[in-house]
Backbone:
């Protein structure tokens, strides 16, 4: 059987379990085409790595690979970033600028967090997918491009369609082939190989020699639920390598969350701690249950969410991109939440 039709491993991707073999099979199969691909998966599951593999294995592999994180740019800037602009198109447009779609001509453009785009921008994306043409911001001249589109989302786009935040016609243009990336908790058989890979990587980067893992430490890593997926594992292994006093990664080098304890939180012990606040609000709900309490659940969620955002923003020194990543939302969503809760500065 042709190895391209199997789940043969792909360089730079780690994992040999059944879930990843299916990802490899689909990646190799779709790479040979020009079809649009939609990558779905939680944050930290490796969507960009798969996008790069599709590009590298495709006939376009010698062309450019351009990545755009749609959730990291303000709405007013994203259109210009994608399609370019001409001089005088808006305040600050002092020169003509080539957009990312033009930069990806004959290659591939990877649109990460496609779910964060506005309906207005989605209309223009739909036209590029259907007609392979667009106009730069402030221009009337049509630009034609030969660019393959790979998009990714960490949200259910069908749900986004149902609530009116994503266009159904764009979804079906993107969704020619879908590749679902499994969360790490569903591929625990790959954790050992991932740990070995990150040990080699961070030993070399940090001039350390920590080649071994204590059995108890590996058991803890295997048992943890990994809400941050491979990216979280990667961060914890780097931390352990840097802090290890000897040549063994021991259990005590792992964070409290991995060892089954509660992680230390910002503001621990204060009345504004998220867990304490939630407990207090729930208790209030129990005490005030009855007529007029129908909106209590919403009030509890809003209060807890607001306090969580306050704490994460403080921990990230007010850097919104970092705070949004830690919260698992895109930058535009964080901006809206900050405005909604009166936290804009």
Residues:
């Amino acid at each position: 059987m042709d190895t391209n039709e199997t789940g043969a491993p792909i360089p730079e991707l780690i994992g040999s379990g059944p879930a990843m073999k299916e990802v490899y099979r689909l990646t190799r199969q779709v790479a040979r085409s020009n079809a649009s691909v939609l990558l779905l998966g939680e944050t930290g599951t490796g969507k960009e790595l798969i996008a790069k593999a599709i590009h590298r294995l495709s006939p376009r592999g010698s062309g450019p690979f351009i990545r755009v994180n749609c959730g990291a740019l303000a709405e007013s800037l994203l259109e210009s970033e994608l399609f370019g602009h001409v001089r005088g198109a808006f305040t600050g447009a002092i020169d003509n600028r080539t957009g990312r779609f033009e930069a990806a001509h004959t290659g591939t453009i990877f649109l990460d967090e496609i779910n964060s785009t506005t309906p207005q921008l989605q209309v223009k994306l739909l036209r590029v997918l259907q007609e392979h043409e667009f106009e730069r911001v402030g221009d009337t001249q049509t630009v034609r491009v030969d660019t393959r589109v790979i998009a990714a989302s960490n949200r259910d786009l069908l749900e986004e369609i149902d609530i009116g935040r994503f266009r159904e016609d764009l979804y079906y243009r993107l969704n020619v082939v879908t590749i679902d990336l499994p969360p790490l908790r569903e591929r625990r058989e790959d954790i050992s190989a991932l740990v070995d890979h990150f040990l080699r990587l961070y030993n070399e980067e940090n001039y350390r020699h920590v080649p071994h893992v204590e059995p108890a430490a590996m058991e803890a890593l295997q048992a943890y639920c990994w809400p941050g997926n491979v990216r979280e594992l990667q961060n914890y292994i780097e931390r352990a390598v840097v802090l290890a006093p000897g040549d063994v990664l021991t259990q005590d080098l792992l964070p409290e969350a991995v060892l089954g304890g509660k992680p230390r939180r910002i503001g621990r012990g204060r009345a504004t701690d998220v867990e304490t606040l939630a407990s207090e609000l729930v208790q209030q709900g129990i005490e005030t249950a009855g007529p007029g309490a129908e909106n209590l659940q919403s009030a509890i969620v809003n209060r807890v969410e607001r306090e969580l955002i306050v704490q994460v923003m403080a921990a990230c020194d007010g850097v919104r991109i970092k705070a949004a990543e830690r919260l698992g939302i895109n930058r535009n969503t964080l901006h809206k939440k900050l405005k909604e809760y009166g936290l804009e500065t």
In short: Residues 296-315 form the longest helix (20 residues). The chain has a mean pLDDT of 84. DSSP finds 14 helices and nine strands in the chain.
